[in-house]
Amino acid sequence: MLSPLLSVTAFAALVHGHGYISSPPMRMPGNATTAACGRSVVADIVRDKTSHVEGLPELAAKDAGYKAAQCNLWLCRGVQFGDNAANVQAYAPGQTVEIKVALTIPHAGSANVSIVDTKTNTIVGRPLLSWPSGYADERQFYGKTLPANQTDFNVTIPTTLGGKCATAGECVSCL
Ligand SMILES: *[C@@H]1O[C@H](CO)[C@@H](O)[C@H](O)[C@H]1NC(C)=O
Ligand SMILES: *[C@@H]1O[C@H](CO)[C@@H](O)[C@H](O)[C@H]1NC(C)=O
Ligand SMILES: *[C@@H]1O[C@H](CO)[C@@H](O)[C@H](O)[C@H]1NC(C)=O
Ligand SMILES: *[C@@H]1O[C@H](CO)[C@@H](O)[C@H](O)[C@H]1NC(C)=O
């Protein structure tokens, strides 16, 4: 059977807190992101790759280089595919992918790992993994560590993606 490869740039979970995906590699900003989002957003992400998206709109709005539609802050914090050609991950349907999350400041909440269609910024299919609550609970964190299955876990690439994700950059999973 011929199935398209899933090409994902920087897989990541959606977390309420500060963290980043350490594996597979996250999207990092470069010139394409600066051109779309301005220097302030890029500087913020470079300074702290765990920085959360909620603080970015205000920061971006003050930057003359910010082009809201092009930047699309709520998709991967505006970090552009153009800067991440070397970060594309190709997965086969049914493949197991190990994901490692570095959580620096946990806040209890829900989290999903999903594949996102970058054109529409919508989830493809259902989440690959879902924590309806109790993810990154700081009461389990301070002085200890989070349950290992929250920071190092496997997902399975779906076998049906409705013909999506065959082209690099078409799909992503990022904070
Ligand atoms: C990014 O832009 C800077 C300054 O505009 C330039 O010096 C540098 O070569 C560019 N980097 C890439 C990877 O294009
Ligand atoms: C996670 O996925 C579930 C099921 O699709 C959805 O109801 C929920 O809103 C999602 N949570 C987040 C944080 O996106
Ligand atoms: C994750 O690990 C904890 C123990 O650290 C366990 O209670 C929980 O059931 C595990 N969850 C899953 C989804 O495996
Ligand atoms: C994830 O899958 C890999 C290989 O399939 C396996 O070696 C590893 O133990 C799995 N990790 C977890 C947390 O289940």
From TrEMBL:
UniProt keyword Metal-binding, yes or no: yes
Signal peptide feature range: 1-17
Species of origin: Xylaria bambusicola
Chitin-binding type-4 domain location: 18-164
Family: Belongs to the polysaccharide monooxygenase AA13 family.
Cofactor(s) the protein requires to work: Cu(2+)
Record keywords, A-Z: Copper, Disulfide bond, Glycoprotein, Metal-binding, Signal
Iron-sulfur among keywords: no
Pfam families, alphabetized: LPMO_10 (PF03067)
Name the UniProt record assigns to this protein: Chitin-binding type-4 domain-containing protein
Gene Ontology molecular function: metal ion binding
